[in-house]
Amino acid sequence: MNTHQKMKAVGAHRYLPISNPESLIDLHLDKPKPTSRDLLVRVKAISVNPADVGVRQKHNYETESPKILGWDAAGIVEQVGPDCQLFQPGDKVFYAGSVSRPGSNSEFHLVDERIVGTMPKSLDFAAAAALPLTSITAWEGLFDRLGINLNANENKSILIIGAAGGVGSIAIQLAKLAGLTVIGTASRPESVQWVRSLGADFIINHNNPFQPQLNEVGIDTVDYIFCLNDTAQHLENMTEVIVPQGKICSIVPINKETWTGSFKMDLLFPKSVTFVWEFMFTRSMFHTKDMIKQHELLNTLADFIDDGKIKTTLTERLEPINAANLRLAHEKLETGQTIGKIVLENF
Asked: Which residue ranges does the record assign to the Enoyl reductase (ER) domain (predicted)?
């Protein structure tokens, strides 16, 4: 007799184009049990990210046990592992999870408490679920990788490439909070409007050369660049406009399958530019000693939200959480034209 309790989930057994109904399927799986510092969270809302699409599109998997995607969730702590110190059953939480574990597209989900934050009191589950992955990426990119101080940035500027997406939508707000002049890139009227509404000081089009557009608004060089779009494609433009001894952070690795040119990193050499990568799963993948920083930054973010300093980037809600709605969300993400975040709520 099977004594395991079952839960709903959405997953994939093998790579298929998103138009195929088998690409993401509804499942019933055993409900997991928390050990060590894990929380068992009853998931109330999830959001989708390019990471979901990227993992789903890896052509080299075909698995007996389904691959569960999803790296953004908000919910209620159901149970805590024996070594937990930060949360108790009943706490409302939000988090992005770890890419090396099953994702959050399931009714119950295990996550290490050190990468979980207390949910903002002023938001519902869906609005909170829109935030973790993009906020952690933006926060780490700006403050850990680029080394920007949260204060004292008078006369300093940042160029955010791909500013209308999930990470850009938070990065604009955090950069403004830090006192930077923010130049965002956007190419369509609706994305330009969104970027402006979040507080960008200037907007340029990333499909055209950067330097003349910056000169038009009286800017010669920028102190920082946060690249949230095709790194290889934008490298020459970035090299032209970065200040000597400036810093560039990118979250987009070079795709050798689609990039046919040579990636000339030595273009940055004459200006002694610092180039850094940001990958928000590094801390959870490698269990770094400072893993708890993600717990701390999510809690700070929640305070910023409750104080009205940052707003959620939720732009679309879908209900319920099931394979059909997740396929729809993935399809929208694959266009590369989504603004803000798509969230699914309630199983």
From this structure: 22-344
From-to residues of CATH 3.90.180.10 in the chain: 6-131+282-345
Cα–Cα dist 231/227, whole Å: 7
Tell me how far apart the alpha carbons of residues 283 and 260 are, in angstroms, rounded to a whole number.
31
3-state secondary structure 248-295: EEECCCCCCCCCCCCCCHHHHHHHCCEEEECCCCHHHHCCCCCCCHHH
Spatial neighbors of 141 by CB under 8 A, at least 6 apart, are: 167, 171, 226, 249, 251, 278
Report the predicted TM-score, pTM, of the whole model to 2 decimal places: 0.95
What topology is assigned to 6-131+282-345 in CATH? Quinone Oxidoreductase; Chain A, domain 1 (3.90.180)
Structure token digits, residue 327: 């396929």
Which tens digits make up the pLDDT trace of 147-198?
999 887 889 999 999 999 999 999 999 999 999 999 999 999 999 999 999 9
Please state which CATH class domain 135-277 belongs to: alpha beta
pLDDT category of residue 1 using cuts at 50, 70 and 90:
very low
DSSP string, 168-193: HHHHHHHHHHTT-EEEEE--SHHHHH
